[in-house]
Amino acid sequence: MGSLLSQLGLECGGKDVREKERHLRANDRELNLSYKYADNAIKTSKYNIFTFLPLNLFEQFQRLANAYFLFLLCLQSIPEVSSLPWYTTVVPLVLVLSMTMAKDSSDDMNRHRCDKQVNNRKVEILIGGELQSEKWMDVQVGDIIKLENNQFVTADLLLLSSSEPLNLVYIETAELDGETNLKVKQALTVTGKLEDSIEKLANFNGEVRCEPPNNRLDKFTGTLTLNGETYSLDNERILLRGCTLRNTQWCFGLVVFGGPDTKLMQNCGRTTFKRTSIDRLMNVLVLNIFGFLMIMCLILAIGNGIWEYQEGSKFAAFLPKGVNAPFSAFLTFWSYVIILNTVVPISLYISVEIIRLGNSFYINWDRKMYYPKSDTPAEARTTTLNEELGQIKYIFSDKTGTLTQNIMTFNKCSINGKSYGELLDFSGQRVEINEKTEKVDFSWNNLADPKFCFHDNSLVEEVREGNPEVQAFFRLLALCHTVMPEEKKEGELYYQAQSPDEGALVTAARNFGFVFRSRTPERITVVEMGELVTYELLAVLDFNNVRKRMSVIVRSPEGKLTLYCKGADTIIFERLNPSCSNLTEVTTEHLNEFAGEGLRTLALAYKDIDPEYMEDWKLRHHEANTAMDEREEKLDALYEEIEKGLQLLGSTAVEDKLQDGVPQTIEQLSKADIKIWVLTGDKQETAENIGYSCNMLRDEMNEVFIVSANTAEEVRKELQTARRKMTPDGTEEPTVKKSRSGLFCLLKTETVADEPVNGEYAMVINGHSLAFALEKDMEMELLRTACMCQTVICCRVTPLQKAQVVELVKKYKQAVTLAVGDGANDVSMIKAAHIGVGISGQEGMQAVLSSDYSFAQFRYLQRLLLVHGRWSYLRMCKFLRYFFYKNFTFTFVHFWYGFFCGFSAQTVYDEWFITLYNLVYTALPVLSLSLLDQDVNDWWSFQYPQLYTPGQLNQYFSKRAFVYTVLHSGYSSLVLFFIPWAAMYDTVRDDGKEIVDYQSFALLAQTCLLIAVSIQLGLDTHYWTAVNQFFLWGSLSVYFAVIFTMYSNGMFLTLISSFPFIGTARNSLNQPNVWLTMLLTSILCVLPVVAYRFLRILLWPTINDKVRYKVRQDKVLPPAPRRVQARRTSTRRSGYAFSHAQGYGDLVTSGKFLRRTPKSRPALFSQTDSPLAQTQPQSYRTISEWEEPPLSP
């Protein structure tokens, strides 16, 4: 019942108010238990042995279809109403409930097993002055526990002391964010003195006041009161449950949050449930089907009342109570509700889940989406969105790590107005750097990284000659960072960096003679040109999304105080001393050159600090750092105060290459009429440059609009100017279509119509302008202008803005969106989109953990959409059309029969046929169609990406398609009822005996029905396999085997009431006219379908028809010539940005390396046997919609 109580908002602990502040005292269980804090036991399971059956059934009957069939079962228990035996409803209902129950039971048993394993882990707890080994579940808030190396952290702990110098501990947070690089935590000095003394720890009585339980992994606010002194607590003092202790012999911690209150468990809440457009359409259709069912039942009930009034009176003498026509009509209405229930078959929902599960396995098993370098396969992390992959209209992509590799190398730099990294020949011309270019010799540096590569010897000469500016430049790189060093062997350094940028910069400083050797929370040790130097670390001014910079304040061995700062050039330049104006101009020119080559750039500056000012600043910093309210705002103000009057040192340029196959993939997706928007933190010039490298921006485009205004009115003006250029004759006001959708049409929607544009356009907008454009009064202008463009690139955007852009398109375009990213800053965008795709990259696993699908390379996205997505959508639509067809046809025959049986609610089929029709006779053939069918194979799907567009337009299944299916079913049911009825009317056998009886007619009608729907299935199948053949012919064989068995003498004598059709099969199926009737009905059912499809292909061929015709013609594919893509020179400026992840040292710079490509678009996709499997280009062909292929007569 705990799960049920939690759903009702109650807690077993008895707390009826939300916790506002946590207060605890170490080693005082009595006090801590009085607050009724949660213990450390966790429970992720939903059921127990007593609640499983009632709760699971309660959940299942919340589904409309299950509740409907339970209602039918109740009706069938009323003898006056029931016209079908109980098993016709019980068998399918129990089967569906049992399958779902078995799945839920298996999942919950696994959760129970995991809970038990975790709760029973052992940990040492300090109880009664001695360490005792206890289970995790017995740990209480306020306990002091001991952890040893490689142990999991038991609960959220306040770190007290450790075995490492200065009370450091190293932890791995892979369970929290997927990152395997080590992070450092440090205990307060006052608690570090406790060391591992059991006596001191047992006497420790510090009181902690802190924030209540929450899900913020990167934030903790609290204070520790000990001996009358108050100490500030932040995230750097806390060890979170789920972390692993590494490289630390032991540590002691005070339990602050336990079990469900830990930040790990607080983050295990349910994510937003995503539903496909087909799901939403099915809900509406099922509701309409219910209404249609009621109308049919009402018509038949009225007919029964009229018949009873006119004809039933003639039989009144034979009835004991006479005839009551209105009451008879009332009972008949409910009887027909039971009989006609097959219009909403319960097997529909279970079949849909099986199809989705199967198509998810295809994604997981696809070897062409497997990345061997990192041993990463594609993974469908959800099974409910597969068909939505075939309807994507907008893709929102991150840049760094998604389009690029996010593997950084130090390439160039600018120091004191001089640029380094270029090679010039004797005439002063630039020399192209390649693999054969001579590298700088770093043999003079014993600690240099042998993998580091640089080509400009002049920089090494400047360093070794003692140039003070150059040495200060690399000293800053060696000190201003949050990298953690590991030295497994003497001289073999390995850096654990929170971002690839920092790792590249620290490695560069290492090779140029400034080797970052070790660090503690209070000191940084650097080997400067062979001399060991230790700096005292006074403060770290952390990075966040607003600051876009980080600084450190250090004291040199000579006692000199210096602030070193690195960050975005626009941010740094605003804080420079006016004396740097000339140097700033030169450095800006160098930044433009670096950005034009697609390099990620960063500006570096420093400042000498007066000791007296520093003492005063430290006092105010301590006050702000111990404040419980507005701590971050107060610290930001202090940081802003001290980071002024900086002296510019120069800038760095780091290279980040594109991933393999990115330009080709984007070209393919564009040809599929998918619009691609890039949402990146890079500066505007970098974003523009990456657009050209990826083929999103092309020189042959009519125009690329740049929106970079600084005021709201200027932004509006730029957007309007761009829109008017694209549509000179367009209206000033957008065309907004208001409608209602959802169940009962309660959801109001507004759709902005697409506006026709002649030519191709693109738009680049920066984050500052985007902030104005996303405001309520301007968002429509942004949407209109952006959606007219083939490509939109938003630069300098924050994670929140990424999600806002996605939500804007979802709200007004009613189109299916997909977001793809690889970092923590992409999580909000991934969750906001209809489908989220995570790239397993260099920035941890947070994006993957929040995604619906994941893989290792961006190029796999085209296979996910153009192959798996399109096939899944096509299969699901075929399944739904065929399923509704066969069931409406089945039901309509009942409806027509009602007019010939006095509206008596008699069934036209054998009762066992009604039971087995959906579960046995037609189940496997339609599943094979839905799991195996494909109009063309994957190779042709790549060659003609226009095949993807019908999914975007909902052409395969919509309300209109559903109406056509119902009309088709109506026609087929007329044929299937009246042709057998006419054929059997006054008919005799060869021996002169009559066969005009109910049972013979029922057998003929149901056999004609099964053959007709099987033929229709064959017509719908494009891709025949042995499995399809086996299931189709096997199902027909099973049908005939079943009827001969059930209609036998033996079955009749066993259960007379259940098998009344004795001898019907052998007496009817030996007559030629019966088989001729089956043949005639089959021909009449399929003839209109064949004729319509022939005329449609002949007169109005679709893109699918043309490609399938081309497939038949091109049995042998001609080879396509390969072209090598040349590098492209560009003067466009690029730059850097930060990855938006906040926390201690979570400083990430962003930018990209761009390959130079020719201005004309290269030929794409030269032919291979497996497209993109080896990242080779593929040949690409175009078929226009109006072009008609020759048709064979």
From TrEMBL:
Organism field: Hucho hucho (huchen)
The EC number(s) this enzyme carries: 7.6.2.1
Protein family: Belongs to the cation transport ATPase (P-type) (TC 3.A.3) family. Type IV subfamily.
Known catalytic reactions: ATP + H2O + phospholipidSide 1 = ADP + phosphate + phospholipidSide 2
Gene Ontology CC entries for this record: plasma membrane; trans-Golgi network
GO biological process, one term: Golgi organization
One MF term in the entry's GO annotations: phosphatidylcholine flippase activity
Record-linked Gene3D superfamilies: Calcium-transporting ATPase, cytoplasmic domain N, Calcium-transporting ATPase, cytoplasmic transduction domain A, HAD superfamily/HAD-like
Matches recorded under InterPro entries: ATPase_P-typ_cyto_dom_N (IPR023299), ATPase_P-typ_P_site (IPR018303), ATPase_P-typ_TM_dom_sf (IPR023298), ATPase_P-typ_transduc_dom_A_sf (IPR008250), HAD-like_sf (IPR036412), HAD_sf (IPR023214), P-type_ATPase_IV (IPR006539), P-type_ATPase_N (IPR032631)
Identification of the protein by name: Phospholipid-transporting ATPase
